[in-house]
Design a protein that fits this description.
The protein has helices at about 1-20, 45-50, 50-55, 65-80, and strands at about 30-35, 90, 115, 115-119. By secondary structure, it is of the alpha+beta class. Strands 1-2 form a two-stranded parallel sheet. It has a two-stranded antiparallel sheet with strand order 3-4. The chain starts with a helix and ends with a strand.
């Protein structure tokens, strides 16, 4: 996990640095920083490892992104619609970067007492 986070920080720093250097020349520098993406290479893992899928990726929108989801983000960043976006390394991770790494809070698992008062 430390490698992945370090790589993400390095990509962000590189993206910002290049945007500062070349932005004055009208060159936009952006990056898409995807998390786990379902490919032929790792599809076997997702087919045989249901437990790993649930425990490691329970806080994301789904176990892995589809390649076309990542491609659509890259397509957007390269489009005229993103013409005022520069120096950004966009996390495309289904929300996993928003997680603290703890299991998601389930509403039905919430305590029946809040502030000493029974609901």
């Amino acid at each position: 996990m430390k490698y992945c986070r370090t790589r993400s920080v390095q990509l962000g720093n590189l993206t910002r640095g290049l945007a500062l250097e070349f932005g004055g020349q009208g060159v936009r520098i952006t990056a898409a920083n995807p998390s786990v993406t379902l490919t032929e290479m790792n599809s076997l893992f997702f087919r045989i490892s249901r437990g790993a899928r649930k425990s490691n990726f329970a806080h994301t929108l789904r176990p892995a992104a589809r390649p076309e989801q990542i491609a659509s983000v890259i397509d957007f960043l390269a489009s005229e619609d993103a013409s005022f976006i520069n120096g950004v390394s966009l996390l495309v991770d289904g929300g996993s970067s928003a997680s603290s790494g703890q299991a998601p809070l389930r509403i039905d698992a919430a305590p029946s007492r809040v502030g000493g008062v029974r609901r």
